[in-house]
């Protein structure tokens, strides 16, 4: 009988232990932490940029659409712009991605002002990350850089989310140019030329033929400097315009008609840039890029901007797109 009781006790302890393990793993997942991380990445890296339009209405419906479409895309790394924070609440990005296994770093939790914020930048990653630097750009832009502990062959990944708070007007190209030059200098100063090429994601308020974007893609110099990054949209071989701000979206149409008096307007102003092989030794190649977060329900869209999703091969043999959500 004593032996039987000991056996039952042992079984009960094992059951309790199993329950505790399950609870522990569940807690890790719900707080955005992966219980395990792969040592190597055997597929292209999936990168998303998304201007989520903070708390604009219909907020709850938009967040539902964003969450559903981000889940379908399965990005590894996300750059957010126009993210919000309210006193006594979690940051908007943390609420949006709750339970989706992302590590998150955002520009601010509002502790600097205790006032509601509407125009933050933020980064979410499947893998652990740490804040590298935050930089205010001279033309009203800003850039949040994080270092991500990505699987091999990537290793340490420098990822930057950027946005300009007051450079959206057509006549602000000087500000956009200054921001482009400062952004490149900022990224080059904190990146490792022997490592994986840095990735920049953001809302640039500028079309591909503008001076600032031409500068970043190596097509012209500015302020006595030149540089080179791949525009993921073009590097993937896309020939279409790929607009991310368009009057097809009635949220954007309302803004465009109000401020610019245009009712038919389509521009590509949201980008993913990949560091150049001229500057970085790590292997990276864009294999696909597409416009995303562009599926409405009736007349409601996830945001007033569409997003951009790129797949980036990390080895010469890993150059096939995964086909997620296609």
Can you put this structure into words, describing what you see?
The structure is a single chain. This protein has 326 residues and is of the alpha+beta class. It has a single domain, classed as 4-Layer Sandwich (Deoxyribonuclease I, Chain A). Helix content is 27%, strand content 27%. The strands form three sheets. The protein has a six-stranded mixed beta sheet with strand order 3-4-2-1-14-13. Strands 5-6-7-8-12-9 form a six-stranded mixed beta sheet. A two-stranded antiparallel sheet has the order 10-11. The longest helix has 29 residues, at 2-30. It is globular, with a radius of gyration of 22 Å. The N and C termini lie far apart (62 Å). The model is unreliable at 1-36 (pLDDT under 50). Its cofactor is Mg(2+); Mn(2+). Keywords: DNA damage, DNA repair, Hydrolase, Magnesium, Metal-binding, Nuclease. This is Endonuclease/exonuclease/phosphatase domain-containing protein. One of its GO terms (molecular function) is nuclease activity.
Residues in helices, as a percent range? 25-40%
Q: How many structural domains can be distinguished in the coordinates?
A: 1
Question: What is the CA-CA span between the terminal residues?
Answer: 62 Å
Task: Catalogue the unreliable spans.
Answer: 1-36
GO molecular function: hydrolase activity; metal ion binding; nuclease activity
Organism: Gimesia maris
Keywords: DNA damage, DNA repair, Hydrolase, Magnesium, Metal-binding, Nuclease
Protein name: Endonuclease/exonuclease/phosphatase domain-containing protein
């Amino acid at each position: 009988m004593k032996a039987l009781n000991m056996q039952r006790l042992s079984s009960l302890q094992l059951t309790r232990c199993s329950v505790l393990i399950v609870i522990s793993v569940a807690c890790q997942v719900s707080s955005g932490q992966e219980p395990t991380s792969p040592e190597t990445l055997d597929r292209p890296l999936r990168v998303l940029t998304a201007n989520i339009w903070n708390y604009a209405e219909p907020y709850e419906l938009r967040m539902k659409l964003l969450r559903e479409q981000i889940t379908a895309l399965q990005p590894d790394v996300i750059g957010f712009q126009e993210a919000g924070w309210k006193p006594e609440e979690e940051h908007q990005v943390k609420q949006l991605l709750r339970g989706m296994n992302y590590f998150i770093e955002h520009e601010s939790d509002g502790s600097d002002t205790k006032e509601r914020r509407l125009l933050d930048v933020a980064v979410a990653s499947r893998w652990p990350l740490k804040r590298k630097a935050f930089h205010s750009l001279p033309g009203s832009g800003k850039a949040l850089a994080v270092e991500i502990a990505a699987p091999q062959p990537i290793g340490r990944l420098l990822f930057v989310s950027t946005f300009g708070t007051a450079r959206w007007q057509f006549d602000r190209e000087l500000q956009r140019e200054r921001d482009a030059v400062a952004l490149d200098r900022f990224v080059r100063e904190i990146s490792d030329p022997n490592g994986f090429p840095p990735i920049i994601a953001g809302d640039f308020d500028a079309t591909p033929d503008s001076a600032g974007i031409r500068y970043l893609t190596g097509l012209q110099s500015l302020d006595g400097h030149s540089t080179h990054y791949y525009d993921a949209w073009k590097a993937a071989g896309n020939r279409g315009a790929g607009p991310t701000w368009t009057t097809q979206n009635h949220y954007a149409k309302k803004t465009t008609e109000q401020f610019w008096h245009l009712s038919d307007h389509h521009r590509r102003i949201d980008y993913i840039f990949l560091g150049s092989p001229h500057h970085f030794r790590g292997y990276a190649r864009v294999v696909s890029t597409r416009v995303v977060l562009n599926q409405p329900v009736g007349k409601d869209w996830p945001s007033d901007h569409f997003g951009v999703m790129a797949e980036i091969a990390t080895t010469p043999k890993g150059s096939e797109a995964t086909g997620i959500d296609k």
